[in-house]
Automatic annotation (TrEMBL):
<dbReference type="GO" id="GO:0005886">
    <property type="term" value="C:plasma membrane"/>
</dbReference>
<dbReference type="InterPro" id="IPR018499">
    <property type="entry name" value="Tetraspanin/Peripherin"/>
</dbReference>
<dbReference type="Pfam" id="PF00335">
    <property type="entry name" value="Tetraspanin"/>
</dbReference>
<dbReference type="InterPro" id="IPR018503">
    <property type="entry name" value="Tetraspanin_CS"/>
</dbReference>
<keyword id="KW-0812">Transmembrane</keyword>
<keyword id="KW-0472">Membrane</keyword>
<keyword id="KW-1133">Transmembrane helix</keyword>
<feature type="transmembrane region" description="Helical">
    <location>
        <begin position="59"/>
        <end position="83"/>
    </location>
</feature>
<feature type="transmembrane region" description="Helical">
    <location>
        <begin position="12"/>
        <end position="37"/>
    </location>
</feature>
<comment type="similarity">
    <text>Belongs to the tetraspanin (TM4SF) family.</text>
</comment>
<feature type="transmembrane region" description="Helical">
    <location>
        <begin position="90"/>
        <end position="114"/>
    </location>
</feature>
<protein>
    <submittedName>
        <fullName>Tetraspanin</fullName>
    </submittedName>
</protein>
Amino acid sequence: MVLDKGSRCAQACVIIFTLFFWLTGFVLLFLGIWMLVDPKRNYLLDLVNFSEDEPLLKFAAYSCLAAGSITLVIGFLGCCGALKGVRCMLGTFVLFLLFLFLAELTIGVLALIFKDKVFDLFADALADRKSTNSSA
C-alpha cells in the first residue's frame, strides 16, 4: 500500500499520540504498583490523612492498575492499527477514545452539579486537619 504525504503525516501523528497514551498507561501501572508495594508510604498517607489499612487506598491502587492495563491495551490497538493500516483496529481505538471522552465529560458534569457537596467535604476535612494540627 503506497501512502501519500498526508496519509504518512496522519499515520505518524496517530503513532506519536498512541506512544504518549502508552506512557500514561505505564505511569498508572507504576503508580498502582508503588502504592501497593512501597513500605515507606507513611509520608504520603500523612498528606492525605489516610491510615495504613484504609480500604480506599487499596481501591485507588487497584483502580490505577486496571486503568493502566486498559490504557496499554487501547494504545496497542491504536499503534498497531496505525502501523499496519488496519481499519478495524483503528476503529476500535477511536471507539475506546470516544468512550473515555464521554466518561470524562460525565465526571466533569457531575463535579459541577455536586460542587457544593465536594467543597463542603473538603472544607470539613481541612477544618478537622487544622484542629488536630493546632492541638498537637
